[in-house]
Automatic annotation (TrEMBL):
Gene (name only): leuB
Organism lineage string: Bacteria, Pseudomonadati, Pseudomonadota, Betaproteobacteria, Burkholderiales
Protein species of origin: Polaromonas vacuolata
Residue span(s) of domain Isopropylmalate dehydrogenase-like: 2-356
GO BP terms: L-leucine biosynthetic process
Pathway field: Amino-acid biosynthesis; L-leucine biosynthesis; L-leucine from 3-methyl-2-oxobutanoate: step 3/4
Name the UniProt record assigns to this protein: 3-isopropylmalate dehydrogenase
Site residues by UniProt (Important for catalysis): Y135, K195
Amino acid sequence: MKIAILPGDGIGTEIVAEAVKVLNVLDLKFETESALVGGAAFESHGHPLPESTLKLAMDADAVLFGAVGDWKYDTLDRPLRPEQAILGLRKNLGLFANFRPAICYDQLTQASSLKPELVSGLDILIIRELTGDIYFGQPRGRRIATDGHFPGAEEAFDTMRYSRPEIERIAHVAFQAARKRKAAGGEGRVTSVDKANVLETFQLWKDVVTQIGLQYPDIALDHMYVDNAAMQLVRAPKKFDVVVTGNMFGDILSDAAAMLTGSIGMLPSASLNDKGQGLYEPSHGSAPDIAGKDVANPLATILSVAMMLRFSLNQPEAAARIEKAVDSVLTQGLRTADIFSEGTSLVGTAQMGEAVVKAMSRD
Ligand code: IPM
Ligand code: MN
């Protein structure tokens, strides 16, 4: 088993360092190799996703990814910006299925921006399609308009598109995930989020998800427009079970869902292809404003390691051990700044990582 470690930029290096400590406590046989990615790779190699980094990721069973990006790169040509590294990894590895669970720990209901009764016990799963949609659709670019409201003016355009097989495979992923959750006591429901009332792309989406749903009679399917889904997420988030949606809607809704749980600093994610390879990263970004200050929450990255063990490395016991340790440090009252509240103990990034390691050694 080979794990590629790509810390990236900003808080990426700090949080990945803690996740690697956790990985090393497990007595498992695997090789790890690190490489630069994002702005850090641009500085040293002149490209955010150098050939060598891409090759390392493609040859690995799993990739542990930190975060990329910094405002100082905002003026670079788009292909050289740090964000292109994660987009390039998703595309080149074919990581089409993005799992973004939003789980509210009992210990953190007070940290949520919503009333405790709306989030206590919250456990939903957003499945975001990750290699299609307006993120990757061609053509895109800038040109002088020849029609529209202002012919002759400079304009920019992107293309939203999905093919039937792209929708079919993500729909299968969602129904299977709902089935698995149902077997573990879940509700067994998929909510497909679209904008079929306006967009042709999402009418096809809705039609295809409906057709695939017929193969899963044990799973309930409902459809929701994305604007309504955004509202329902902050009105009654517990009404959702599995949410499946496209790349852009999933990007936006998963950030909103993340905040319900107290902090986006708690949320792991997995991006999978059809070969069992996966990229595991926290749902949050590189947070350059707090980078290097030992204040970032490493738990999302540590929990991403648990997802890696479960999805790519077939080590569910080790995954459960990490999750139990995270639960235990929260019960001990340890909190990084993002989840701190009165009566709890404020700790830094490294202290939090070490606390998890310690909790793991206890069992
Ligand atoms: C995410 C991020 C990325 C995205 C950026 C960094 C390209 O926001 O993983 O959600 O938009 O997908
Ligand atoms: Mn995002």
